Amino acid sequence: QPSPKQEEDYGYDLFPERNAPKKYKKGSIGESLFTFSHKCQVMLQFAMETSPYAKLLLSAMKSSGCKVFKDRHFSCEDCDGTVSGGFDAASSQIVLCQNNIHQQAHMNRVVTHELIHAFDHCRAHVDWFSNLRHLACSEIRAANLSGDCAFQNEAARFNFGLEKHHQECVRGRALRSILAVRNIGREEAAKIVDEVFDTCFNDHAPFGRIPHGKKDAKFACRDYENRDRYYANI
Amino acid sequence: ASNGPVWRNTPRVCEDYWSEFRHCKSFWNRFHHYYAFGAAPSCQQWKEDYNNCVEWEKNRSATEALQTSERKRVAEQTKFTPLWKLRQGPPKDWHLPLNHGKPEDS
Q1: Residues 184-223 of A with CB under 8 A from B
Q2: Is the minimum CB–CB distance between A125 and chain B shorter than 8 Å?
Q3: Would A129 be classed as within a structural domain?
Q4: pLDDT in tens, A164-213
Q5: Chain B environment of A163 (Cβ under 8 Å)
Q6: Of the residues A123, A136, A154, B55, which has the fewest C-beta atoms closer than 10 A?
Q7: Which family does this protein fall into (chain A) (predicted)?
Q8: Residue A231 lies in a domain
């Protein structure tokens, strides 16, 4: 059991059900009546089956030896505050905050965002706990490639901006994500984001492009399925 | 193909180049590109690639032009030095079961 200080250091306090017994036993009537667990499971299944973003990431992870099993690698839990999800590298699990995700479009985005972290964990030696630059890099990639910063999502948050607003949004969300899970000052976090921004903003794996919408994601899927032929013939 | 000279396939099916060109020029794509990069996307290369692809399939020519264009695209996607070291295989604990039955430490 990590100490309370350790929990805070790594953001585990946002996910109270991670290191404590769940309030309602899994599969119990109490769970279905008093939590959003069932709804979360249904939306997750739908996201995995229909979102081209999620499908591409699942495919890429499978090719890298990290096949994703819904019951093993995803966990629907109640979380603190307004956080929507997280990736727990210690248990190789994606946490979905069932009390904060109520729409399918939001679920699709959260699943994509967290799968990008899982994908990074799978393909590289990401030092989630002691290397803030690594953490910042994965957060930049997740904000950039998941649709978090698509125009319509920013507009819905009343963040209006046009030219290159996407990049400002990516910077801002990466910063927020780091501040939520680590005990460091805003200036220090911003400096780290700046240091790694260019490298990580340009890393579009496994999409091969920044998917601005479903069509881009579908084309990225198509490219991924076609990759053997592609690389054999260039 | 089993008999005769082995011709290489085009990197992508030719219709894919055309659909990329159409998508590139669409309103929403141009809008999102401006939103992300502050400039209009350049779509002409997709059209050239489509024409070269068709040439390749019909007359087995223009292979070099298309390959050069694609190699340039690959270079664009790999023009940074990764921050982290890539793994040789998946993390060892990815498939391990969760410790649900772990006894509580006091």
Answers
A1: 196, 198-200, 202-204, 208, 210, 212-213, 215-216, 219, 222-223
A2: yes
A3: yes
A4: 789 999 999 999 999 988 999 999 999 999 999 999 999 999 999 999 99
A5: 34-35, 38
A6: B55
A7: Belongs to the peptidase M76 family.
A8: no
Strands A93-97 and A74-77: parallel
Per-residue tokens: B104:
């509580």
Domain that holds residue B47: 14-76
Tally of domains within chain A: 1
Q: Is residue B43 part of a domain?
A: yes
Number of domains in chain B: 1
Q: Does A106 touch chain B (CB under 8 A)?
A: no
CA A85-A87-A90 angle, to 5 degrees, is 140
Q: In this complex, do B83 and A229 lie within 8 Å of one another by their Cβ atoms?
A: no
B6-47 confidence digits (pLDDT tens): 567 999 999 999 999 999 999 999 999 988 888 899 999 999
> What does the longest C-alpha to C-alpha distance in chain A come to?
58
Backbone φ and ψ of B17, nearest 5°? -65, -40
Which range marks the domain in which residue A83 is found?
4-219
Query: Treating both helix axes as pointing N-terminal to C-terminal, what angle do A186-201 and A165-181 enclose, rounded to 10 degrees?
Result: 130
On whether residue B8 sits in a domain, the answer given is no
Q: Is residue B91 part of a domain?
A: no
Residue B72 lies in a domain: yes
